[in-house]
Design brief:
mainly alpha, 5 helices
């Protein structure tokens, strides 16, 4: 149900943007300062096909927005995030950190062994 309304909503949005872009600009403060009877409420303004189409599309946009808001409020499922779904599950028990891919001859390993009182481990020679 929601998917159908969202598709209708998006079609209304695209049509509304297209109709608004097709309209001729009156210029100067949205046609407010034109003086005489040339404004939006004149017979010429209300009879214009683009103006009526814009009003109908805007009413449809408003209606679908309200319907989607009402449906979202009545939804019984708990809101979730895409990030929550993609996150891997945590292991049951904490495991020991994996050994580094190298030979273990890093500076931190050397310092830890020296702190324990042992001799620092010599890195294994590479086969080059």
């Amino acid at each position: 149900m929601e998917t159908v309304i969202i598709v209708i909503h998006l079609m209304l949005v695209l049509a509304l943007v297209g109709v608004v872009l097709l309209q001729k600009s009156e210029g100067g403060a949205l046609g407010m300062g034109s003086g005489g009877g040339g404004g939006l409420m004149s017979s010429r303004g209300t009879a214009n096909v683009l103006t009526r189409t814009t009003a109908i599309l805007a009413a449809g946009f408003f209606a679908t927005s309200l319907i989607l808001a009402i449906l979202a409020g009545k939804s019984s499922e708990k809101p979730s995030s895409i990030i929550d779904k993609a996150a891997p599950t945590a292991p049951a028990a904490p495991s020991a950190p994996a050994a580094p891919a190298g030979s273990g001859g890093g500076i931190l390993d050397t310092l830890q062994q020296m702190q324990k009182g042992g001799q620092p481990a010599q890195p294994a020679p590479t086969g080059q």
